[in-house]
């Protein structure tokens, strides 16, 4: 049976005070033993302090982005090996905000996916469609295209050490959430795409849903057969809400 995983993507939010308060509270809640596997991805400037705060903790650390390069004259970039040295376990790759706002292509996302694994990190590969694509009936083909671009470059076996996240762009930060049935349809399709290359990899691949996941809708989403957790945005900045989501994931096993 696949384990449940809940990942908090703080995006460009936070402060040292929030970092300390939230991580201290999460560790106390997780220690009660009713949490699913959980990770937080604060902004890069807070990763070192977060690693210290989370030492010997059940909460894992992740980063929001990485360079496709290992080192070099790339001002402002951070390599996978640097993140690993700080204690990161996960790194988000191909988030829609990176694709849309920073023009990251499928090819670049694939390169970053490979760079993450080369550094010993677990990439959380994001795919998802716009509202226009959903309304045009293009959702399944589009997310398959995004996924297949990485499979073609990294190889299917690379996904035995990865996490896949479906994040419909139209549901990110809008308060709109795909219904459990809509989310399940896409998750099932993505698992079928992977299964075309390897049934064994598909069966074990953790797949998260992201898109306005909150304390009220998490349990219904986690009840779906192919949803193995969540990539949480705004609710991950609220101790009580994120804790409810982690508990809902664990109780759905």
TrEMBL record:
Report which reactions are catalysed by this protein: D-glyceraldehyde 3-phosphate = dihydroxyacetone phosphate
Q: Which Pfam families does this chain map to?
A: TIM (PF00121)
Part of which pathway?
Carbohydrate degradation; glycolysis; D-glyceraldehyde 3-phosphate from glycerone phosphate: step 1/1; Carbohydrate biosynthesis; gluconeogenesis; Carbohydrate metabolism; erythritol degradation
Entry annotated with the keyword Cytoplasm: yes
Named from the GO MF annotations, one term is: triose-phosphate isomerase activity
User: Entry's HAMAP family?
Assistant: TIM_B (MF_00147_B)
User: Could you tell me the Gene Ontology terms of the biological process aspect for this record?
Assistant: gluconeogenesis; glyceraldehyde-3-phosphate biosynthetic process; glycerol catabolic process; glycolytic process
- Relate the assembly described in the record: Homodimer.
Task: Identify the keywords attached in UniProt to this record, alphabetized.
Answer: Cytoplasm, Gluconeogenesis, Glycolysis, Isomerase
Catalytic residues identified in the record:
95 (electrophile), 167 (proton acceptor)
Where, subcellularly, is it found? Answer: Cytoplasm
Question: Origin organism of this chain?
Answer: Dasania phycosphaerae
What PANTHER family does UniProt report for this protein, alphabetically? TRIOSEPHOSPHATE ISOMERASE
According to UniProt, the name of this protein is: Triosephosphate isomerase
Q: What is its EC number?
A: 5.3.1.1
Binding-site residues, substrate: 9-11, 173, 212, 233-234
Gene behind this chain?
Answer: tpiA
Q: Which InterPro entries match?
A: Aldolase_TIM, TIM_sf, TrioseP_Isoase_bac/euk, Triosephosphate_isomerase, Triosephosphate_isomerase_AS
This molecule's function is given as: Involved in the gluconeogenesis. Catalyzes stereospecifically the conversion of dihydroxyacetone phosphate (DHAP) to D-glyceraldehyde-3-phosphate (G3P).
GO CC, sorted alphabetically, is: cytosol
Q: Which domain of life is it from?
A: Bacteria
The UniProt similarity line reads:
Belongs to the triosephosphate isomerase family.
């Amino acid at each position: 049976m696949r384990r449940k995983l809940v990942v908090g993507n703080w995006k460009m939010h936070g402060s040292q005070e929030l970092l300390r308060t939230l991580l201290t509270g999460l560790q106390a809640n997780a220690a009660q033993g009713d949490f699913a596997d959980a990770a937080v991805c604060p902004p890069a400037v807070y990763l070192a302090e977060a690693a210290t705060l989370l030492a010997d903790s059940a909460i894992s650390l992740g980063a929001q982005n990485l360079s496709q390069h290992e080192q070099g004259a790339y001002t402002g970039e951070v390599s996978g090996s640097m993140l690993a040295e700080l204690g990161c376990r996960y790194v988000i790759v191909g988030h829609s905000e990176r694709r849309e706002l920073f023009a990251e292509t499928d090819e670049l996302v694939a390169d970053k996916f490979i760079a993450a694994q080369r550094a010993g990190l677990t990439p959380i590969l994001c795919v998802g469609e716009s509202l226009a694509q959903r309304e045009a009936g293009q959702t399944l083909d589009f997310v398959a295209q995004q996924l297949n671009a990485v499979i073609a470059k990294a190889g299917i076996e690379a996904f035995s050490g990865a996490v896949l996240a479906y994040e419909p762009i139209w549901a990110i930060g809008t308060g709109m959430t795909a219904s459990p049935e809509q989310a399940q349809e896409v998750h099932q399709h993505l698992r079928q795409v992977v299964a075309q290359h390897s049934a064994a990899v598909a069966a074990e691949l953790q797949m998260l849903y992201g898109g306005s996941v909150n304390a009220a809708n998490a349990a219904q989403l986690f009840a779906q057969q192919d949803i193995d957790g969540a990539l949480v945005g705004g609710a991950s900045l609220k101790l009580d809400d994120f804790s409810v989501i982690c508990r809902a994931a664990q109780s759905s096993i």
